[in-house]
Amino acid sequence: MMAQSPHFFWRIARQSGAVVSILFVLLIWTLFSALNIMPQAILPSPASVWSATVEMAENGTLGRDLTVSLSRATIGFSIGTSLGVLVGLLTGRMALMQVLLAPALTLLRPIPAIALVPLAIVWFGIGEGSKYFVISYTVFLTVWFNTHHGMQYVPDIYLRASRSLGVSRAREFLTVIIPAAAPYILAGIRLGVALAFLSLVAAELSGASSGIGYRLQEARQYIRTDRMFSLLIILGILGAVADVIVQRIGQRLVHWQQG
Length: 259
Known about the structure:
It is a multi-pass membrane protein. The protein has 259 residues and is an all-alpha fold. It has eleven helices and no strands. It folds into two domains: 37 residues; 210 residues, MetI-like fold, CATH 1.10.3720.10. The mean pLDDT is 85.
């Protein structure tokens, strides 16, 4: 029994890898702060970051900013994902749509979200429309790209088998092509979740009066690195939770791909 105990603890550590990783980073961070390797104004201690988080929570700004940012990210993500899947289904299986749209969309993909902020403000003003546009644009291109390629790389053997059984084109599309492309589509949606939060900050850095991105900009102006660290950590937690939710939903929907 004693000889097996190290293996037991190693297995537990691997299963709780995220917790171990976070605790390790916190330990290193605390040691750096305690040794005063960097000034507090540059690298605040975990305790000061926690105090800044409590301060923002108590004065109500954190709750308001989270509500506004989550609303923007959710709406932008929903619009971008819906359009990305729809256009990807069309360009992936219809030659005409591929010729008309795929090259142009491919050219747009390298343009970063932050570069679109000035144009979005000109088009939609400094209201919510510009934020939704930046977020949905970024999510759309990623979801479209994955959906498009997933639809193109459906194995021919699946199509030959369905047609040999006399399956109609509509039924083939719904029961063969889309399920075969589903892992690609869900991978794109999962990437879209991360990009929704990345583009959210870009959208809120200019022309916003609330939200996590706006609060980051405000903290920079007042050199409140403790607040900056707090907001960045919260943003990372939100993105990680959203990613886990999408991953779990994907595992249930694409159950035939599991193990």
